[in-house]
Amino acid sequence: MLDPRDPRPSFAIRDLTPADRAALVDLDTSFETDRVYDVITTGHRLELVERALPARVVKRYPIEDVFADWATWDIGFVAVDADDRVRAFAGLEYEPWHARLVLWHLYVTPELRGQGIARHLLAHIEAHGRRLGASRVWLETTNINVPGIAAYARLGYTLCGVDTTYYDSTPESAESAVYLSKPL
Questions:
Q1: pLDDT tens digits, residue range 124-183?
Q2: Among 61, 85, 91, 156, which residue carries the largest CB count within 10 Å?
Q3: Pick from 99, 120, 98: which is nearest to 108 by CA?
Q4: Whose CA is closest to 33, among 12, 55, 15?
Q5: Collapsing DSSP states into helix, strand and coil, what is residue 34?
Q6: Which CATH number goes with the domain that contains 93?
Q7: In what order do the strands lie in the sheet with 12-15?
Q8: How many domains does the chain have?
Q9: How far apart are CA 44 and CA 120, in angstroms?
Q10: What one-character DSSP code corresponds to residue 8?
Q11: Per-residue b or e along 99-113, where b marks 16 or more CB atoms closer than 10 Å to that residue's CB
Q12: Which residues touch 109 (CB under 8 Å, ≥6 apart)?
């Protein structure tokens, strides 16, 4: 657990290694929410309108997607505790044709959320992007990830697009993709 009086993090951020793969399979990617963003589109305007849900829902991202054949991330970072246990993971891809660093995956184990791990990991990602020559970090999440969208907003990420058809052929067809970005 992080001590709020100690500005030094009690975890380290390092490059993902092949040995970390087994630990990633056990990483809990779930989150809970009692809110959702409804995506309202009218003409040339889009709006995210927060709505309360009748009951809390739990969403779990399939961790096996991290290693799927179609996954395109090629840069990985992990946050590890003092015992070198993986507590968070980020998978990235640099797209040089438009100087964009794509954040494909960012997961922090639930019991450590709200303690600064994602903030430190994103700062590391952003610094890495600058070294690569990226002009921005870009990411996609879902309209049900209200807690994640709020966390990204606190860290300077802003809405840059929505796709209401992105998940149409998946079990998440009722969800919409929400795109956020942050200039570097």
A1: 999 999 999 999 999 999 999 999 999 999 999 999 999 999 999 888 889 999 999 999
A2: 91
A3: 120
A4: 55
A5: strand
A6: 3.40.630.30
A7: 12-15, 75-80, 86-95, 100-108, 136-142, 177-183, 158-163
A8: 1
A9: 36
A10: S
A11: ebbbbbbbbbbeebb
A12: 27, 28, 87, 88
Q: Which positions ≥6 away from 55 have C-beta within 8 Å?
A: 34
Cβ contacts of 127 within 8 Å, gap of 6 or more: none
Express each pLDDT in 68-91 by its tens digit.
888 888 999 999 999 999 999 999
CA distances from 79 to 34, 84, 89, 122, 124 (A): 28, 9, 6, 11, 10
Domain contains 91: yes
End-to-end CA distance of the chain: 30
CB 124 within 8 A of CB 106: no
- Residue 83, C-beta contacts closer than 8 angstroms, at least 6 positions apart: none
What is the helix (H) or strand (E) element at residue 25, kind and residue range? helix 21-25
Q: Containing domain of residue 63, as a range?
A: 12-183
